[in-house]
């Protein structure tokens, strides 16, 4: 199994926040921070408390970008991958418990209060491509985490033709 690098995982845990980027059916971008998450089995899981723009976008387009930034070091990573909504009850309960267990007391109180109103969704993110984000370096050469040739072509960077020889429908996962 290909895994995303340790330094990416360490930064995600140290910063305690990820920024989730989605696109709606009109191509309009949306970003939204997440602080209630858990790393497991090379995936990122988070509580999706609201069913607004981000959640709606998941239902139309499974491709998502996640950014994690260390503002002190002026570095970070962008992960591109796909999302899945966890529906199986046993798995849902287990992951929800793991997410809540790692929250700070104050954060946990706010999250549990929100959960009491309407059950959250658990989103599973599977990273396919990782780009380092460093303003002083060219970072268009990614780390490809997926063995699928189509994914590798998508991640080609600035020197690869923009169409990558693929039709947009072939990018559905």
What this model shows, in words?
The protein has 173 residues and is of the alpha+beta class. It has a single domain, classed as Electron Transport, Fmn-binding Protein, Chain A (Pnp Oxidase, Chain A, Roll). The protein is built from five helices and eight strands; from the N terminus they run αββββαββααββα. The chain has helices spanning 6-15, 53-60, 89-101, 105-117, 149-154, and strands at 18-23, 29-34, 37-40, 43-48, 63-70, 75-86, 121-133, 143-144. Strands 1, 2, 3, 4, 5, 6, 7 and 8 form an eight-stranded antiparallel β-sheet that branches.
Q: What labels describe this entry?
A:
173 residues, alpha+beta, Pnp Oxidase, Chain A, 8-stranded antiparallel beta sheet, disordered C terminus
Which helices and strands, and how do they pair?
Elements: H1 6-15, E1 18-23, E2 29-34, E3 37-40, E4 43-48, H2 53-60, E5 63-70, E6 75-86, H3 89-101, H4 105-117, E7 121-133, E8 143-144, H5 149-154
Number of helices: 5
Shape: globular
Q: Which fold does the CATH topology refer to?
A: Pnp Oxidase, Chain A
Beta content: 25-35%
Rounded radius of gyration (Å): 17 Å
Q: Give the H and E element order.
A: HEEEEHEEHHEEH
| Share of helical residues | 25-40%
- Return the domain count: 1
CATH superfamily: Electron Transport, Fmn-binding Protein, Chain A
Question: How many DSSP-defined strands?
Answer: 8
Q: CATH class, anyone?
A: Mainly Beta
**Which structural class do you get from the secondary structure elements?**
alpha+beta
Terminus-to-terminus distance: 18 Å
Integer average pLDDT: 79
């Amino acid at each position: 199994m290909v895994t995303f690098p340790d330094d990416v995982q360490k930064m995600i845990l140290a910063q305690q926040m990820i920024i989730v980027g989605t696109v709606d059916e009109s191509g309009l971008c949306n970003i939204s921070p997440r602080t209630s998450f858990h790393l497991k089995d090379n995936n990122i899981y988070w509580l999706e408390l609201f069913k607004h723009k981000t959640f709606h976008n998941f239902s139309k387009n499974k491709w998502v970008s996640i950014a994690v930034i260390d503002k002190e070091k002026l570095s970070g990573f962008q992960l591109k991958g796909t999302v899945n909504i966890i529906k199986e009850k046993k798995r849902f309960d287990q992951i929800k418990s793991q997410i809540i267990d790692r929250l700070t007391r104050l954060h946990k109180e706010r999250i549990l209060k929100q959960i009491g109103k309407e059950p959250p969704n658990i989103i599973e993110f599977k990273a396919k491509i990782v780009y380092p984000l460093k303003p002083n370096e060219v970072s268009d050469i990614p780390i490809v985490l997926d063995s699928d040739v189509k994914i590798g072509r998508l991640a080609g960077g600035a020197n690869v033709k923009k169409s990558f020889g693929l039709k947009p429908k072939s990018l559905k996962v």
